[in-house]
Write a structure and sequence with these properties.
Length: 516
């Protein structure tokens, strides 16, 4: 089936300037301003497209956000020479240098601002297609919820603007989650299950937020706030849609050739062949911007990328704790990292031969997920990866649902949904290998299963924090034994600091996060 992909038309919406003589205050009809925009169905669609555009800038998923999510967990560590990256993983971010963590903060709020423009202006447009209007508003709620999700999840106590004013007061983390939930609830109400069979300007637009995506993220927000009953309900809705299924090959979730597959609930659309050749570094969008990602070069193995983030040996070892039913290694190991074993190649070169002159590299492990190692690329040094970023996979919904079942006392039922994920990689039936687990034992099992299924996908540290492991001295000691970066963790640093520019410039008495 031919798919029509939606790519982002970046709308630059700004106020025009004026002079004292009102007769000279005229708008250029060739320039979009708030005075001549927000008139038609097309304007509404362009406006929400601009909200999506904020997700592929340097501060968001073009580069910084995956790093901020991955760096602090025990499945990765950083040997980057760039302090902003190196210190992120060691919980020692230098507040006065807002590289990476500050760029993300800024770009999230740019996305929120754009979403607020849509939510405040689109209701006043007399759409020819009312269903399209609902879908535009639903996407704006979903995207604002996603930006707020990252702000609340990464920075804790943040402003929550719902209008276009420049400055807002700081809210509690609990208030933040309430707003995230409210936006995803509204998105679920307004969004379609699919864009395939619609009539309208967005017909067939693969990549737009759907009802399933809103349900899944709403469930995730409930899970993160420990409302397991409501989370369970949301994940059941996703499962009962019958829209999603696990792909047979685990690696298909991280390659360009298998994008927007049956497992993908929400993913960001990157493409080497759309737009210009410049990366979206931030600021005012330009016509030369492309739709490509710098994730691959940031994570890429030495000699092919910068190796700023790489897997830990703890992750490497944990993949080998259990063999498949045929006695083979867990195939997720080979899909996740490059390592020295017979037949291993990277970018067309034999691993052992390529690193033969460097024993440290020869015996190390490097990131394979989201790398262009098998599509003819010789390296990642062009900075322009076209691999889509999968933000929500059906496997995650199944695992989060199993977690809810366990927390609600239905431990026996949790086995079934965990095994769905294990079956794909031919791991033995957990009911046979570990029958009759208690709730506490199942918690540990779920932690292990999530560690292996979602490594280097930005989930692990979120799990560590929400499970309270950083406040459990025995768990913290265990993390330190696996990843020395936890030796410099101190209480409060489970959140990134509020950038000093926000504290200095916002007149609403913004205070720094505890521990910083």
């Amino acid at each position: 089936m031919t798919k029509k992909y939606f790519y982002i038309a970046i709308a630059s919406l700004s106020l025009s300037s004026c002079v004292n003589d009102a007769d000279l205050d005229q708008h250029d009809p060739n320039v979009n301003t708030e005075a001549n925009f927000w008139k038609t169905d097309e304007d509404g669609l362009k406006g929400v497209n601009a909200v999506y555009a904020g997700l592929i800038t340097d501060g968001t998923y073009m580069r910084s956000t995956p790093l901020l999510l991955d760096a602090r967990a025990d499945d990765t560590h950083s040997v980057s020479p760039w302090g902003a990256m190196f210190t992120a993983g060691k919980f020692t971010t230098v507040i006065s240098l807002d590289d990476i963590y500050g760029w993300a903060f800024k770009d999230y709020y740019q996305g929120v601002y754009r979403a607020n423009q849509v939510l405040l202006n689109v209701p006043n447009i007399a759409f020819a297609d009312q269903e399209l209007k609902n879908r535009v508003l639903g996407q704006a709620h979903f995207l604002r919820g996603l930006y707020f999700f990252h702000l609340v999840n990464l920075y804790g106590r943040v402003p929550l603007p719902l209008d276009l004013e420049l400055y807002h007061g700081q809210k509690t983390n609990e208030e933040g989650w309430q707003q995230v939930i409210a936006d995803f609830q509204k998105a679920e109400e307004l969004l379609p299950v699919s864009y395939t069979n619609l009539n309208g300007l967005d017909k067939g637009h693969t990549g737009r937020a759907t009802k399933g995506a809103a349900m899944a993220y709403l469930g995730k927000a409930y899970l993160f706030t420990k409302d397991f009953s409501k989370a369970k309900e949301q994940f059941e809705k996703v499962i009962n849609l019958g829209t999603y299924s696990l792909v047979s090959n685990y690696s298909d979730n991280f390659t360009e050739a298998n994008e927007n597959n049956s497992e993908s609930i929400f993913e960001l659309q990157f493409d080497r062949n759309i737009g210009g050749i410049d990366l979206g570094w931030g600021g005012a969008p330009g016509s030369s911007w492309g739709k490509t990602s710098a994730r691959a070069i940031t994570y890429g193995p030495p000699g092919f990328g910068f190796n700023d983030i790489q897997p830990t040996k703890a992750l490497f070892n944990e993949y080998q704790q259990e063999k498949t039913v045929s006695g083979a290694l867990d195939p997720r190991l080979g899909a996740t990292m490059f390592y020295n074993h017979p037949g291993e190649t990277l970018y067309g070169k034999d691993f052992a031969q390529n690193y033969a002159g460097n024993p440290a590299y020869l015996n190390d492990v490097f990131t394979k997920k989201y790398q262009n190692y098998n599509n003819g690329s010789v390296s990642e040094y062009d900075w322009r990866s076209g691999i889509n970023e999968r933000l929500m996979r059906y496997a995650d919904v199944l695992m989060m649902y199993a977690e809810c079942l366990n927390e609600l006392g239905s431990t026996s039922q949790a086995y079934d949904y965990i095994q769905m994920v294990r079956n794909r990689v031919q791991l033995p039936d957990l009911r046979t290998t570990k029958p009759g687990m208690t709730q506490a034992q199942m918690r540990e099992q779920i932690a292990h299963e999530r560690f292996l299924e979602f490594s280097l996908e930005g989930h692990r540290f979120d799990d560590i924090r929400r499970w309270g492991w950083l406040q459990d001295q025995s768990k913290l000691n265990w993390l330190k034994s696996r990843d020395s970066e936890f030796n410099t963790y101190s209480p409060g640093r489970e959140y990134y600091p509020i950038p000093l520019t926000e504290i200095d410039n916002n007149p609403n008495n913004i205070t720094q996060n505890p521990g910083w």
